[in-house]
Write a structure and sequence with these properties.
The complex is a heterodimer. Chain A is mostly helical. Chain A has 6 helices and no strands. In chain B, helix 5 packs across helix 6, helix 12 runs parallel beside helix 14 and helix 13 runs antiparallel to helix 14. Chain B contains 15 helices and 27 strands. The chains are: A mainly alpha, B alpha+beta.
């Protein structure tokens, strides 16, 4: 399996399978079929989410290739500095919606950059330790993005 | 002419009979019931030819009075007349602002109790009386016993509110085929009607709730991308603003609940009149002392309710962000719910999406119509290819040290979904622990909604931190949560006791059910026997068919074992030995689990190979 996958085909396969096994197809069936449908349909949703989301997909790929879930890599000091800078920036603009939107664009750019790095490290170099390092960075970026969105939502609901 | 029904080879030995399945929109203000009759979906009229049943129940005589008749008694007898009960369901007293109710509300063992002349009623009972009335309507107008119903709930309803809704259906004796979200039901009505494709926004402003959902429609698949909303925002709030405006501009201080009711009714009339008028003059005598004289223009109404409208738009924006879509990627905006008739809402939504709105179906009826279409499909009455993939609207999490929420299932996860989380003990020899499940997006427990406390018992006594308990949170296709737990090193299944923070415990629901049947003990026994017989023979039939189709999935030994149990059960079903039938049904059930799983895998394989020949086209 590769990091770069055909998302369109993934979605189609997912929908074909759910159309077959979703609990809605077993509403009048026996309890045992209902249970199985719930179990399988849940598994398929999980598999789909794992493959669809690039972070989850990378984590899964690393897990099966490194054959270990241990995360031994540490973030490089330069990234740690960057992290702190970003966190401070978020703090300082937490009440300004337009600044938050701008910051979100910047973070999104970082996310995309890391994603294409991840692709070459996984699919070309097959360097799983390297992939783990990028994954750690991209996870931080993703969380930061979530925090920014939450902050924007909070301002809007006020 | 009656059509001959011929079953698909190998599918079922019995021809399929048409099952009476309905869709129910259990609304804050009004409820509706619809069904597919000879291929066409329509609203079932009440006895008085009305299409909408006011969601109002009056308790003073021996039987509850439901609908218009109850609504007419609201001003005369506000204390015994319950409306907008949907705002109270799945909640407790501290959640609501009692000053907005002219009812005598009290705490009744964790749920809200409403004191009436006929005793204390809880919201589940009141909803169930509305559902009973709708069930009667269906059975009378279609002349058949009801097989099952799809009941709609606001997408933004949390677990407690969903559970309470399902309980009230159970109490009304209705087989719930599925709880579906109101916006999704509306999408079904539009999608099936017009064969639409692409990303659609369903903007649903009802009497008491607001939902916005974003769906991707493609060839009969409705995949919800994101949902957002406010379970406490609706047309009633616009009435409330007018009510406050009336009081302020006429300098009235209302304390009397009858006068309050009258003013509320007047406020609603004003709001409705403003739907197609630029301005309205009010000259109304409320009682001897109070006479109201003023004028409200469309513009002023828009101004005083601006805050409410803004809330709906910001929810919409958040849903778009969650779906990672922009306004330009939206192919259509569907307006649902009577309150979307307000020009101020229409204008705000139109302006936000910069496109004309889809409102050619009656906004009051579209949810019930969609639910009826889904009910017809779930009951197996049609071969229409339709699948709804809905999401959980609010994240589920557990309380950890320091009042912090650890998120377990994030919002907008497609249903059904399950996640496991490992917990460990805090003290040496600890044999029990409490898991507090909350729902919401905030980081602190006190800012989220508490759903239930699960007490895990039977943890093997080990040193602190040695026991590893895997707790699995499963949310099913109705959006309902169940929790199971297992100690990992010993494999011991922990016993779980659930104490719901809101709503009723399973035992209490069971008791209410029993009370409602009020059966003699021998009736109960014969009822139980016939229930287990039906379950047993259904299972028998299913396994027989399964063996006929897929016996190659079984090893000879497994096959023999199944056949043996099958024969025993068959014999037992002819007897009246309830315990024996129950035992054998359970055995057959357990023995065939892995067979059922293998069959499910095979059907997936078949579907994928079948479709890949056509390059994965539907």
């Amino acid at each position: 399996m590769q990091f770069n996958i055909d998302l369109d085909r993934l979605q189609k396969s997912y929908r074909i399978i759910q159309a077959e096994i979703h609990p809605d197809k077993f509403v009048s069936a026996s309890q045992i079929e209902k249970n199985q449908s719930l179990i399988k349909s849940t598994e398929v949703n999980d598999a789909y989410q794992t493959l669809k989301n690039p972070i989850k997909r990378a984590r899964y790929l690393i897990k099966i290739n490194l054959k270990s879930e241990e995360n031994n890599s540490t973030l490089p000091p330069s990234f740690l500095m960057q992290q702190m800078e970003w966190e401070e920036h978020l703090e300082s603009i937490s009440e300004q919606k337009s600044e938050l939107e701008k910051f979100r664009l910047l973070i999104n750019g970082e996310y995309q950059k890391n994603l294409s790095n991840l692709e070459s490290v996984c699919d070309t170099d097959k360097n799983w330790d390297g992939a783990m390092e990028i994954l750690n960075e991209i996870q931080f970026i993703d969380k930061l993005n979530y925090k920014i969105i939450q902050q924007i939502n909070l301002i809007e609901t006020k | 002419m009656a059509l001959l029904q011929i079953s698909e080879p190998g599918k079922s030995t019995m021809p399929h009979e048409h099952r009476l399945a309905v869709g129910i929109d259990l609304g804050t203000t009004n409820s509706l019931i619809a069904s597919v009759v000879s291929g066409a979906v329509s609203i079932l009229e009440q006895g008085n030819k009305e299409r909408l049943l006011p969601s109002v129940v009056h308790y003073s005589s021996s039987n509850p009075i439901v609908g218009s008749e109850a609504k007419n008694l609201q001003i005369k007898d506000p204390k015994n007349t319950i409306s907008s009960v949907k705002r109270l369901i799945g909640k407790n007293l501290s959640d609501i602002d009692t000053k907005f109710y002219s009812l005598d509300l009290k705490d009744d063992d964790g749920v809200i109790g409403i004191q009436t002349d006929k005793g204390i009623k809880n919201p589940i009972e009141v909803s169930s009386d509305i559902l009973k009335k709708l069930k009667e309507t269906a059975e009378e107008s279609l002349g058949n016993e009801l097989y099952g119903a799809v009941i709609t709930v606001p997408a933004y309803f949390d677990d407690a509110q969903r559970q309470a809704t399902k309980d009230s259906a159970k109490l009304a004796g209705i087989n719930v085929l599925r709880l579906i979200n109101e916006p999704t039901a509306a999408a079904v009505a539009y999608g099936l009607d017009q064969n639409k494709e692409g990303n659609f926004v369903i903007f649903d402003l009802g009497g008491g709730t607001f939902d916005v959902s974003i769906l991707n429609l493609s060839k009969g698949i409705f995949e919800v991308q994101a949902t957002h909303g406010d379970a406490n925002l609706g047309g009633d709030d616009y009435d409330q603003v007018i009510f406050e405006w009336l009081c302020k501009s006429n300098k009235i201080n209302v304390t009397n609940s009858k006068i309050k009711q009258k003013l509320f009714a007047l406020s609603r009339e004003i709001k409705e009149a403003l739907t197609n008028k630029d301005s309205i003059k009010i000259n109304e005598t409320i009682d001897k002392k109070i006479n109201i004289q003023c004028e409200l223009s469309q513009q002023e109404f828009e101004e005083i309710t601006k805050k409410l409208t803004k809330k709906t738009i910001s929810s919409t924006l958040q849903a778009l962000r969650d779906a990672e879509l922009s306004v330009s990627q939206i192919q259509g905006v569907v307006m649902v719910g009577g309150s979307t008739r307000m020009p101020c809402i229409q204008n705000a939504v139109k302006e936000f999406f910069k496109q004309p709105l889809l409102n050619n179906l009656n906004p009051d009826e579209v949810v019930a119509l969609g639910a009826a279409q889904q009910a017809n499909i779930l009951a197996g009455n049609t071969n229409d290819n339709l699948l709804l993939l809905d999401v959980i609207p609010l994240s589920l999490g557990v309380e950890t040290m320091g009042d912090i929420v650890e998120r377990i299932i994030p919002r907008n996860s497609t249903l059904p979904v399950s996640m496991g989380q490992e917990f460990t003990t805090y003290k040496d020899g600890q044999t029990a622990m409490i898991i507090h499940v909350v729902q919401g997006e905030r980081d602190l427990v006190r800012d989220c909604r508490s759903l239930a406390k699960f007490t895990l018992k039977g943890i093997p006594p080990l040193v602190a931190g040695a026991a590893k308990i895997l707790v699995t949170f499963q949310v099913d296709a109705d959006g309902l949560l169940s929790v199971s737990a297992k100690e990992q090193s010993t494999g011991i299944q922990s016993k779980i006791e659930v104490k719901p923070s809101y709503g009723l415990s399973d035992d209490k629901v069971k008791k209410m059910l029993e009370d409602s049947f009020n059966l003699a003990s021998e009736d109960k026994e014969s009822r139980a026997l016939s229930e287990i017989k039906i379950e047993g023979s259904q299972l028998l039939e299913m396994i027989k068919n399964a063996i006929y189709e897929d016996s190659d999935l079984l090893k000879e030994k497994e096959l023999n074992l199944l056949q043996e149990t099958l024969n025993e059960l068959k014999k037992s079903l002819e007897s009246s030995d309830r315990n024996n039938i129950e035992e054998l049904t359970k055995k057959l059930n357990d023995d065939s689990q892995s067979f059922a799983a293998k069959r499910m895998d095979r059907s997936i394989q078949k579907a994928l190979t079948g479709k890949s020949l056509n390059s994965l086209e539907f």
